[in-house]
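RECORD TYPE: protein structure
NAME: CPNE9 protein
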Amino acid sequence: RNLLDMDTFSKSDPVVVLFVQVSGSSEWKEFGRTEVIDNTLNPDFVRKFVLDYYFEEKQNLRFDVPPGFHSALFGPQDFLGQAFVALGEVIGSQRGRLERPLTGVPGKRCGTILLLAEELSNCRDIVTMQLCANKLDKKDFFGKSDPFLVFYRSNEDGTFTICHKTEVVKNTLNPVWQPFTIPVRALCNGDYDRTVKIDVYDWDRDGSHDFIGEFATSYRELSRAQSQFTVYEVLNPRKKCKKKKYVNSGTVTLLSFSVESEFTFVDYIRGGTQLNFTVAIDFTASNGLPSQPTSLHYASPYQLSAYALALKAVGEIIQDYDSDKLFPAYGFGAKVPPDGKISHQFPLNNNMENPSCVGIEGVLESYLQSLRTVQLYGPTNFAPVINQVAGTAAQVTDGSQYHVLLIITDGVISDMLQTKEAIVTASSLPMSIIIVGVGPAEFEAMEELDGDEVRLSSRGRYAERDIVQFVPFRDYVDDSGNQVLSMARLAKDVLAEIPEQLLSYMKTRDIKPLRADP
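PREDICTED:
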């Protein structure tokens, strides 16, 4: 709208070029171009760009508006402007419609660019399937194996991303797993011929699960099970190389497979659901004195602390889906001025009435300020801040608000029983909890809270939904010291489950998205 007029004898002939930033780098790659529209300052472009959308990634886009090109007599015209935007901002804006000013021509108003995003229908299908296995390899010394399956979708660069884990079936070589549902997008990103890899593991309490074997398939192949059983051989490549007589490590049978269309995460966001982001940071003494380089809270002039990196990685993506950009931020496990009392939910901005900070930068500022004013102490209690956010989430349960609590900790938890009770209670509310562990500690307690393999329970009550995602930050640190890459890797894994967790809440409550205006 209202583009600069660069032509002498007529109006400009604009075209839009879309560039996509390569994840974890500053490099931009051209993705595509619209058609050229002659002689107008208010073009409506017809050609669409079809992009893969990942909630868990910061997908930066750049729209350049160069001129169209005339005959050799005139040569190329001057640049008309550009706009930078994250794909999440477009999807998170009202009705998937975002208007941005064009910039890049000094001293001139370049007009605006209007972006509209809509979801393609092949992403709406959801699959329900059930599998069983037969004669799996025995891995346990005193009993049979405790098998579970891990599903991976293949990415375009040849890598694999975990998209589903089944439950563990204890002490059997012939397990029958419960039916489960998974979106087609999560399984193969809508590409029916893309490889789906499935690993079979024997569960071990200490987390060092034994690999039994693997097999590969595709959505198209799986879907044939609607009319027939499909049997896959489970193969262990190491055993196959070592043993001449090796046949397989068992078989997996697909018992059933059905497809139905369902509401998507984007439907709810476009219908007005807001993501509310709350941060809780560990201020216990086990982190070390913030002024010392060995401290997990230490930030040099050249490098952010692991706490600050985790906060930015997660917060900068979630903020695109929160219209007011106000984020409550708390600390726990410190002695707080003026009276030096120990607190497990003190506001980082020192405002008990309104603990919200403006934007992720505001949270970072308040965090650094708190490091200078409080005394790191203990113990490490999660329950108070989980109950605080759960209390807020319980006030609005109609699907218009969904809460995400980020807890960043060095992992030595003191109130495990109370925390389990708080999570089980929160599992029926519109909220998710992300726990990022920093430092070298062992995080067995956090793995238990995650509940991916064994559903979390407290005093005989089981969590209604899996709402906790835990990751150790050290697994994502880039060896070359590239912090942008470390943050991108971390965000990709910790946020990947949020869309499904939101959908599981909406589904159990039979909440349908509000219709976005056309």
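COMMENT: Residues 359-373 form the longest helix (15 residues).
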